Amino acid sequence: SYEVTQPPSVSVSPGQTASIPCSGDKLGDEYVSWYQQRPGQSPMVVIYQNNKRPSGIPERFSGSKSGNTATLSISGTQSMDEADYYCQAWGGNIVIFGGGTKLTVL
Amino acid sequence: QLFQSGAEVKRPGASLKVSCKGSGFSFTTYALHWVRQAPGHSLEWMGWINAGNGNTQYSQKFQGRVTFTRDTPANTVSMDLRSLRFEDTAVYYCARESAGGRYHGMDVWGQGTTVTVSS
């Protein structure tokens, strides 16, 4: 297996774009999903297969990947987007989560 | 939806069983994952069970100490964790793998079960 790395925290001003990176040596070969977890709540998938949005997820959430780094972007960030965000990939038959990034909307 | 059993307080060395009941979907056509989250920490994957055929895959970290089972008539999967340690204190989640497969993420999560290991 391998590890994926996220910055512990990212800050953004309301209305601006937040970018949260996730890097790992083998991420270039894997699909990445992203989860949002608000305080006291269960996680919720916001991006799968690197850049696809499940139904019901606002268009301001987008995902991309370049080489071994995946990025979750939130455009027009709102206060309700303040949460922890986790990237997730598969390493063979096991699931790997990143360490999580706390997004603060200042 | 996924509904999990209630909070537990356990002594070190004891065993734990958390159940997860599915509602509103064809339970046996899905894989269910178990994920835990220690206080202030990241999500930690424990493994998955195919609710249809009972096949399992465990994280190497928990191999030998955890068992996933299913009760298909009851639309329920369970997680048994043995020889509990203080560091097993966490919220335990079950999560459904999307019908689109593993690369579509976990699209339904239980509400979480808080487990405290304390002497």
Q: How many extended strands of chain B? A: 11
Main pleated-sheet profile of chain B: 7 strands, mixed
Q: Please identify the oligomeric state.
A: heterodimer
How far is the first residue's CA from the last residue's CA of chain A? 36 Å
Could you estimate the helical fraction of the residues of chain A in percent? under 10%
CA-based gyration radius of chain A? 13 Å
Average the pLDDT over all residues of chain A and give the rounded result.
Answer: 96
Helix content of chain B: under 10%
Greatest interface and its participating residue counts: A-B, 25 and 24 residues
Inertia-based shape of chain B: globular
Rg of chain B (CA only): 14 Å
Tally of helical segments of chain A: 0
Low-confidence parts of chain B, pLDDT < 50 over ≥5 residues?
none
Order of H and E elements of chain B: EEEEEEEEEEE
Mean pLDDT of chain B: 96
How many individual β-strands of chain A? Answer: 9
Number of helices of chain B: 0
Categorize the overall geometry of chain A: globular
**Beta-strand percentage range of chain B:** over 45%
Describe this structure in words.
The complex is a heterodimer of chains A (106) and B (119). Chain A is 0% helix and 47% strand. Chain A is mainly β. In chain A, the strands form two sheets. In chain A, strands 1, 3, 4, 7, 8 and 9 form a six-stranded mixed β-sheet that branches. Chain A has a three-stranded antiparallel β-sheet with strand order 2-6-5, with no helix packed on it. Chain A is globular and about 35 Å long. In chain B, the strands form two sheets. In chain B, strands 2, 4, 5, 6, 9, 10 and 11 form a seven-stranded mixed β-sheet that branches. A four-stranded antiparallel β-sheet of chain B has the order 1-3-8-7, with no helix packed on it. In chain B, a hairpin with a 5-residue loop joins strand 5 and strand 6 (56-58). The radius of gyration of chain B is 14 Å and the shape is globular. The model of chain B has no long low-confidence stretch (mean pLDDT 96).
